[in-house]
Amino acid sequence: MSENLVAIFVPSMRGGGAEHAMLNLAIGLQERGLSVDMLLIRVKGPYLSKIPPQIRVIDLGALRVLTSLRGLVRYLKKEQPASLISAIDHANIVAILANYLARVNTKIIITVQNTALTILSKKRKLKIISILLLMKIFYSWAYAVVAVSRAVADDMTNLGVIDRSRIKVIHNPVITPEIKSKSKSNIEHRWLVTRDRPVLVSVGRLTAQKDFWTLFKALKLILQQRPIRLIILGEGEERESLEKLSVELGIEADVDMPGFVDNPYAYMAKADVFILSSAWEGLPTVLIEALALGTPVVAADCPGGSREILQAGRLGRLVPVGDQKMLAEAIVATLDEPVRPVDPEALKPFTQEAVVEKYLELLKR
Could you tell me which residues are beta bridge partners of residue 111? Predict the structure, then answer.
């Protein structure tokens, strides 16, 4: 058993919140003196280049999460890390099963990154039953189950996956020293250089979950009152349909989607308002980052952590999911009021330092 070795298991380093959180956790643990291996099913993604050389990258050489089981069992038998931390539900199940098959004493800590009720409702009944059954069976075998927000913990309990007393809430390590330093970088986006009207910024993968359709419709309503622009940073399978919708709504000249950018913080810091329009979340990383940068925010009150982060609306306006009219009204109201600074103490639980400390306590338990 390698007492100083911690493995972190994620499918890839694609530009998602869970992957970014696990990268920040890996860096934080390594800086506290632990040896860290990053286990990837596919060694690709924009965050790959951000892994420091002190962290070893292990290629499990699989095409899918399930087929990574053999490689993960082999790794556990050979390296025998003291702990393995996994993220994303399918990876969580494979991690627990691999540990059982490897017959080692590695502590499996699974992190639940998203609420499940909304996601499961989009699947067929038989698949829902199968997923819930697997979660109920395997999650009870884990050394620890970590939920990234109270909303996620409550969701798991309501689904009957695991007893609430077995779930530990530890937020993702979102706020790092890098955020503030990178936010000061110059960007050459024409809308943020020539400030002739307010600019909204949103960050997220172009997927159904992020509900940029509602944001587009809200933008159209605002444009009927005043000039405004929207920048969305991210890439995904819904790009074509969103581009088509922008043309249909006649807002294409006021929307820019430059794709994934290496430094979203510079955009977020210069935005007049940051928008989270998601239909569901677990712990919306970008919302926390925007608050940390002092940018006013408006968020959908979706299943997940937005209400928790914004302290029921005290730190930013919350609007019903999918309500374009109320979203537009909240954006206009936020633009028309003075910027209110956020108390740093309110964001302390989301700092890399605080979160790493909680994981260290968990690892030593």
Answer: 87, 146
**CATH, residue 277:** 3.40.50.2000
C-alpha span between 140 and 132 (Å, rounded): 12
| pLDDT confidence of residue 124 | 63
Is 353 a domain residue? no
CA nearest to 328, candidates 189, 222, 174: 222
Pairwise CA distance, residues 80 & 107, whole Å: 10
Burial 309-331 (b: 16+ CB within 10 A, else e): bbeeeebbbbbebebbebbbbbb
Axis-axis angle for helices 125-139, 89-102 (nearest 10): 50
Q: The tokens of 207 are what?
A: 């997927």
Instruction: Count CB atoms within 10 A of the CB of residue 240.
Output: 9
Whole-model pTM? 0.88
**Residue 354 domain flag:** no
Are 227 and 150 in the same domain? no
Cβ 198 vs Cβ 335: under 8 Å: yes
Q: Are 88 and 183 in a shared domain?
A: no
Same domain, 187 and 134: no
Tens of pLDDT along 67-94?
999 999 999 999 999 999 999 878 999 9
Q: Give the pLDDT band (50/70/90) at residue 61.
A: confident
Mean pLDDT value across residues 31-56? 94
Rounded mean pLDDT of the chain?
Answer: 93
Question: Beta 317-319 vs 167-169: how paired, if at all?
Answer: unpaired
Q: What is the pLDDT of residues 203-222, one digit of tens each?
A: 999 999 999 999 999 999 99
Please check whether residue 364 lies inside any domain of the structure: no
Residue 51 structural domain? 2-170
Q: Tokens standing for 255? A: 């929307």
